[in-house]
Amino acid sequence: MKDTPLGTPAVSLGPPPMISLPTEADDLRLLDERGCLTDEVLCFIEQLSADQREAVERHLVDCPACAFHRNQLAEAAGAMRRARPRIPIPSDARLLGRQAVLRGMLKRPRYSEPSDRKTRRRRRLLQIGLVASLALVIVALALLLLTVLSGCKPKSAAKVELKVRFSAGAKLGRLPGDLTAATASAGVFAGGTQRGAVHLLGARGETIVVSAAKARPAKPTSQPASKPAASSKPASKTASKVAAKTASTKPASKPSSRPASPITARHRGAIAALDLSADGELLLSAGGRTVAAWAIDIKAKRATLKNHLRGPQILTAAVLGASDVEAFFGTSQGHVLRWTIASKEAKAMTRFRCRVHMVSPGRAAKPPNRRCPHGTYDTNRKGQGYCAYPVTQLRRQGKTVGLACRDGYAHVLDLKRDRARYRLAGALGDLAFAGKGSLVFGRLDGQLQVYDPSIDDVDASMRPLASFRQPIYAMAASGELLAVAGKTTVTFVHLRGRRPLGALRVTSPPVWVGIELKGPARAGSKGALKVIQRDGQIARYPFVLERAATAKPSQGTEA
Amino acid sequence: MAHAISMKDMGIVAALRGGNLRRALELLFDTYQEELYAYCASLVGPSEALTVYNRVLGAAVDGLTTVPKSITLRAWLYRLARHAVTHQHQQQRRSGALEDDYAPVDGPDALVGAGPSQQLQLHALPPEVREILQLGLWQGLRLRDVAQILERPLPEVRRLAAQGLVRLAAERHVASSEVLPS
Predict the structure, then answer these.
(1) Strand, coil or helix: what is A74?
(2) Least confident of A80-94, A233-247, A286-300, B102-116
(3) Among residues A312, A373, A306, A384, which one has the least CA distance to residue A348?
(4) Where do the DSSP E strands lie in A298-344?
(5) How many angstroms separate the CA atoms of A347 and A115, rounded?
(6) Across the interface, do B58 and A7 touch by the CB < 8 Å criterion?
């Protein structure tokens, strides 16, 4: 008989019947050692499996003690259930539920099926990211602490306080006036005129005209018989097949006189760009639709046409390559072409060019001259209009070529990797490479900006250097010293200086400036500034860099 | 392990698998909001029930997509509510730890609606037993779900439940024998 805390039943129930269930199933002990159902079974019979419940029910029919005990427990459970508190849900709680749904939608707009593996991977990635970020922060703090403790400041933070003192200038010579482009190298000065002539001036006063302004070639002795000597048509590509032609030599006192020798490459239109090799023996000229390379022997007063090209577009900029066997030139449509001088064609660089700007239909409906200010309107294959802006500058330093466009952007090409490195905003006026690869932008609105390539962040690495009241026409750099030519002055600026070092007044707008300086720009350094003015005058101004005693800017500074 | 899905949860799980989180949340709250609020109110009283209930809803929204497969949604919600109540009690006591045998059943109005005799009988039970009986008999949860809510082994929960119910039955028997004439 079952002995329970509920007491003994009033009638004798006899021995418990045998049931055919195992004593343990699903971690649940069904029968005790006396063969009666355990309390754990009797309390929650409804939660047993169907088979277990059926067997238990059979046992309860046969075992009055277990049935009695089960009734007692069921009554207690029923009383407990009936005592359940009835708590109605208020309307605020229902509102909270709706708000929670909306919060969930705002917080997690997209849902993917829950996946433990995915969640674990995400958590792991998050942990790795957090640890990496923490490590970076610690390293940065340690470096900062080391910098502070060692007392060193970054070089860029060290400001330079110098001033420049100019001596009386010396006139080196004079080229024909109305120059549009000029350059100098190894004692040779070259100037291109508005009418398409290119003149050279040597250190000893030798002058050569390498490209005539007018098509008046004299009858050459070495000209092929098939080519009309007096033809007014521009030289064709086949002209480059002809053996090198000897250009004229003429006295220095009469630079504008008629050339005595045939000119086989003419520039119809203003000379846009000139570039001399480092030894002064190779000249690149670009103007009109023609680009030409000339071998120069200034001592013998001889210029020989090596090769030239003519194309459909107006050329606006040119620069010699690093090895003097190739050249780059830019067109009014924004294209840049790479030309191996010995070859008869140039290849357009597809990824190194001025970008085109798509034109809205509203602007395309305007008159043609108002569609693209400073640019050229054209349509692509789909009939969409776009503006192409001309190349304004091409500069090279070592294996790096800089390109400035009329739309205000500059591009940099790495010749080693043969791919464009970055694109920057700036340089409508002139572009120059300064020390350590810095790129200086001289803008027509007088703003001077410098880009430091050692800083990856383009926005942070572009900083204003100085501001002038006149447009910047030409620039030259020697290390960190920079000469900026405006309309009436040439101003010296140091890349790490707080203000311009000094300025030199000139009589005519400079077309080209150059700095002769050995070593870095520091107090006591001596050098010279060379200037080719638009009126053709060439002058050399010695200068000395001195330590600035006061913060007063030098006289004539336009900043 | 397969999903433990009850009949009520079929629609919710289908909405979840279909990527409709909004529908799943609406179904979840429509199905369980009344008993969930009642459970919270029975533990902490009507005055703080809304606070706890809001916390439970936030936890449910955050974790609905990562519910463990071994637990039913209903049991999971009760587990969230129990944690929220524990957290609420911890905040009220302003101490970092509760007693080892703490069970969130000591709310101020936890036995609202229960008769005096039931109150006395329930209060005579240990808190952990009382909590199991409340979940099993008041909320109608299966013992397997109660074990998952309390995060305790099922045999132990079953043993405690039987122990409590036997004790309640014994006290009922004693009370009836005192009232009835011999």
Answers:
(1) helix
(2) A233-247
(3) A312
(4) 302-310, 315-320, 326-331, 336-340
(5) 55
(6) no
CB atoms within 10 A of CB A235: 21
* Cα–Cα distance for residue pair A412/A421, rounded to 1 Å: 6
pLDDT at A255 over 50: no
- In this structure, are strands A409-414 and A419-425 parallel, antiparallel, or unpaired? antiparallel
Residue-wise pLDDT for A418-444, tens only, equals: 766 666 666 667 888 887 778 888 877
Report whether pLDDT(A328) > 60. Answer: yes
For B113-131, what is the mean pLDDT? 72
Task: Find out whether A206 and A227 touch, Cβ atoms under 8 Å.
Answer: no
pLDDT at A389 over 90: no
Q: Nearest-CA neighbor of A341 among A357, A315, A365, A323?
A: A323
From the candidates B9, B33, B61, which should be mutated to test the interface with A, based on the most A CB atoms within 10 A? B61
As a whole number of angstroms, the distance between CA B120 and CA B115 comes to 9
Residue B119 CA to residue B103 CA, distance in Å, equals: 17
Q: Give B36-73 pLDDT, tens digit per residue.
A: 888 888 888 778 888 888 888 888 888 887 888 788 88
Contact: B49, A93; criterion CB under 8 Å:
yes
Q: Where is average pLDDT lowest: A167-181, A396-410, A538-552, B50-64?
A: A538-552
Q: Cβ B22–A96 below 8 Å, yes or no?
A: no
Task: Name the nearest CA neighbour of B69 among A111, A124, A27, A117.
Answer: A117
CA–CA distance, A269 with A92 (Å, rounded to integer): 85
CA angle A255, A261, A266 (to 5 degrees): 80
Name the pTM for this structure.
0.50
Alpha helices per DSSP H over A393-522: 458-461
| A108 to B29: CB separation less than 8 angstroms, yes or no | no
ipTM: 0.76
Helix/strand/coil percent split, chain B, to 5: 70, 0, 30
The pLDDT tens digits of the residues spanning A212-229 come to 655 444 444 343 333 333
- Please compute the mean of the pLDDT values over residues A232-257 and round it to a whole number: 39
A38 touches chain B (CB under 8 A): yes
Task: Enumerate the β-bridge partners of residue A512.
Answer: A532
- The nearest alpha carbon in chain B to A115 belongs to B66
Please give the pLDDT value at position B109: 44
Long-range contacts of A29-36 (CB under 8 A, 24+ apart): A30/A55, A30/A56, A34/A2, A36/A2, A36/A63, A36/A65, A36/A66, A36/A69
d(CA A192, CA A536): 10
Contact A35, A41 (CB under 8 A): no
Q: Which of A8, A47, A111 should be substituted to probe chain B, the one whose Cβ sees the most B Cβ atoms within 10 Å?
A: A111
What is the C-alpha separation between B5 and B13, in angstroms, rounded?
Answer: 8
| Residue B104 tokens, joined | 């969130």
A480–chain B nearest CA distance, Å: 58
